Structures are given as C-alpha cells and as structure tokens.
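Tutorial handout. Part one gives the primary structure; part two gives the three-dimensional structure as tokens.
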Amino acid sequence: MKSVLFYFVPLIVYAMINNLVERLYWPYYVALLLAFLGFQLARLRYPKDAVPPIAKITQGIFYILTVAFIFRDQYLNPLMINVLLGITLVIAIVEIMQYRRKPSA
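Part two.
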C-alpha cells in the first residue's frame, strides 16, 4: 500500500502546481524535482532485474510529463499537461492493478 503513495502523491503535486500556479519559479521546480524523485521510488517495489514492461512504460510516460512540465511556460498550456497527467494516472492504475504484491505467508 505504501508503494502506491509513491505514484499518487507526485501526481497530485504535479496537478496542484499545474492548476494553481501561473508562472513557474525555482521553488516550484524544487517541488517538482522532489515529486519526480518520489515517483522514481515506486520502482523499489520490483526486484532490480525484474521490472515489468508496464512499469517501464509508466516511468517513460512520467519522464515525458516532467519534460513537458518544464517547458510548460514557454511552449505548452496547462491543459496539455493535464492530459498528460491523466494518461500517466491511468497507466499507473493499470500497473498497480496488474502487479499487486502477494502477501507473504
């Protein structure tokens, strides 16, 4: 259950910054960096050599979201970032549903 928070808390931070902040300044970039690092911790739920393909896709989509977010003020509008957030959220939910940890006996 704790590893699920590593997916959703960063996405909530991204959504809040995207929808509440008009212009990004350095404190917001620091918050985005911390959220990005939190999302990367979600990979810890898998063994190092056995990361499933859907987890790699989720990480890739999140990388794309992060790069798009960085260039939001110059080239993109917040609506495009919201669409990417939605896609990332759906893929993260699919990953969580497919690869739930089985309780240890």
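Part three, for discussion. Helices lie at 2-20, 26-40, 53-70, 72-75, 78-98. The CA atoms of residues 12 and 33 lie 14 Å apart.
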